[in-house]
Amino acid sequence: MAEPWWEGPGGMELWFPKWAQNGRVRAACFGRSGGVSEKPWDSLNTGFHVEDDPARVTVNRMRCTRVLGGNLEDWVMAQQVHGQQVVRVTAKDRGRGAFTAADSVPGADGLVTNIPGLTLGILAADCVPVLFYDSHRAAVGVAHSGWKGTVGHVVREVVSVMKQSFDTRPSDLNVYLGPSIRQCCYEIGSDVADEVREEFGSSVLIPSGRIVGTPEHFLLSLQACIRSDLMDCGVPEEQIEDVGQCTACHPNHFFSYRRSSGRTGRLVSVIRLVRED
Ligand SMILES: [Zn+2]
Question: Ligand 1 centroid vs 244 CA: distance in angstroms?
Answer without folding.
Answer: 10
